[in-house]
Amino acid sequence: MAWTGIWAAVFHWFVSVFNACDYMRYVTGFSSESFGMYVGIIYLIKGVEELVNEFEIAGPAGGYLACMIAILYFASVYALEKLGSGEIWRAGSEASSPTTPMLCFCTVFWVGLSRIPGTIQSTHVARIPVTESFKPAQPRSWLIDFWNLEVKWVFVAMPFGFLVMLLFYYDHNVSSITAQARQFPLKKPGGFHWDFFLLGCTTFVAGILGLPMPNGLIPQAPVHTDSLTVYMTGLRIIPTAEGEDIEIRRPVVTAEAVVEQRVSHFVMGVALIGTMTGPLLAVLHTMPNAVFAGVFFVVGWGSIESNGILQKIRKRKIWLYIGIQFFAVAACVAISHTLAAVGFPVLVLLLVPLRTLVVPGWFKLKELQILDEFTTTNKMVLASLGGKPALPENSKEDD
Questions:
Q1: 3-state helix, strand, coil in the chain (%, to 5)
Q2: By three-state DSSP, how is residue 5 classified?
Q3: What is the distance between the alpha carbons of residues 3 and 241, in angstroms, rounded to a whole number?
Q4: pTM here?
Q5: 10 Å Cβ neighbour count for 282?
Q6: Alpha-carbon distance 53 to 339, whole Å?
Q7: Shortest CA distance to 302 belongs to which of 96, 84, 48, 81?
Q8: DSSP state, 133?
Q9: Hey, which end of the chain has fewer CB within 10 Å, N or C?
């Protein structure tokens, strides 16, 4: 695994040096929505797998309690999010996303409930395993002795490193693009090539330390940007034919600006280091695995519910478009649960040429203009990706 990370880092550096991230400007809602749907489904599957594992670890009683905690955690977060996004809470001029406070509140509540003395506490559920502070989970040194590996195995790791790079190439760059998508009024350009170069550096460090390799997270990528976005609630007045004194009023929420800074990113990085300290490790150990299963449900369903695939107009051509997206999602989910799962990054990356080269032949120009759009249209962001791209359908005559 260490050499897989090293090779992946080398490929990251090659891609960034030769500005290959420019290709990602061709990403539209077709590929980003399909991959977002795939990730959401995988989260739901992982949540179910976690709960099934609880029955093997803690027995029937512990498994049942874990299921109740996970399901009620998801239900409470979902209900509070819907309540917080209701019009009654948007009476002021500014609005913000309530997601983070609801997650924190529900996490504390359900972790505390699992520790109530009596029957609940005596029903043992699996909790997050921890080690000593700043110590590897396995009995080894911090640094993996990758230099002692035979030369042939070094080169065996090369194709796997390339596959990791392909996955990160799509996952990280699409995550970055969706975090700078058209709904956010950003004014500063992005640094896609430099970011990908830095991702190679962190992948290298993760490889030699034996840590999970860092990468983007598409469903949650825009959450940080959304939390930094200043929303204003206006009033849309719709006149009626019944008279001048009768009108329909509806609130309209618009994004006015984004607080573009680097402090919050830095604080999150420092906070992650803090989770390796003794006191916070003790706190983490109090958390049942079922809470994380609930988080998987929240994140997975949030990605699916808000996905553009489920928000298309129901017409024949629209269903064809949605069917292609669902086929792509199903193929990604299927290959992830077979021995060919290592080739999953290739399948994901093929979504972009599928949309730009194949799909335009099945639809008219106006249909694609309604159904799909570039994930990012911000001029400052596109300037970091080599400029605005041109899709094949824009060059063909409409019928």
A1: 65, 5, 30
A2: helix
A3: 72
A4: 0.70
A5: 11
A6: 21
A7: 81
A8: T
A9: C
- The answer, yes or no, to whether residue 59 has pLDDT greater than 80, is yes
Whole-Å CA distances, 396 to 320, 356, 377, 382, 384: 20, 13, 21, 23, 28
> Can you tell me which residue has the tokens 């992982």?
46
3-state DSSP assignment of residue 300: helix
The length of the chain, given as a count of residues: 399
| pLDDT value at residue 9 | 93
Residue 127 corresponds to which amino acid?
R
Helix-helix angle 316-335:29-84, to 10 degrees: 90
Residue the block writes with tokens 């929303």 = 231
Closest CA to 305 of 51, 110, 85, 91: 85
If you ran DSSP here, which 8-state letter would residue 281 be given? H
Across the chain, how many H-helices and E-strands are there? 15, 3
The conformation of residue 127, written as its DSSP 8-state character, comes to B
Residue in the block written with tokens 């029955």: 55
Cα–Cα separations (whole angstroms), residue 375 to 28, 280, 349, 368, 392: 5, 38, 15, 14, 16
| Distance, first Cα to last Cα, the chain | 53
Specify burial of residue 214 (Cβ count, 10 A radius: 0-12, 13-18, 19+).
Answer: middle
Task: List pLDDT tens digits, range 213-266.
Answer: 887 666 667 778 888 888 887 777 777 666 566 667 777 778 888 888 888 888
**Residue whose C-alpha is closest to residue 328's, from 103, 128, 125, 30:** 30
What does the alpha-carbon distance between residue 68 and residue 70 come to, in Å, rounded to a whole number? 6
The DSSP code for 214 is P
Q: What is the pLDDT of residues 26-57, one digit of tens each?
A: 777 777 777 778 888 888 998 999 999 988 88
Question: Mind listing the pLDDT tens digit for each residue in 358-391?
Answer: 777 777 776 676 666 666 666 766 667 666 666 6
Sign of the alpha-carbon dihedral angle for 228, 176, 393, 315: negative
> Which residue, 351, 382, 377, is CA-closest to 33?
351
Residue entry with tokens 């110590």: 135
Q: Centre a 10 Å sphere on the Cβ of residue 127 and count the other Cβ atoms it contains.
A: 17
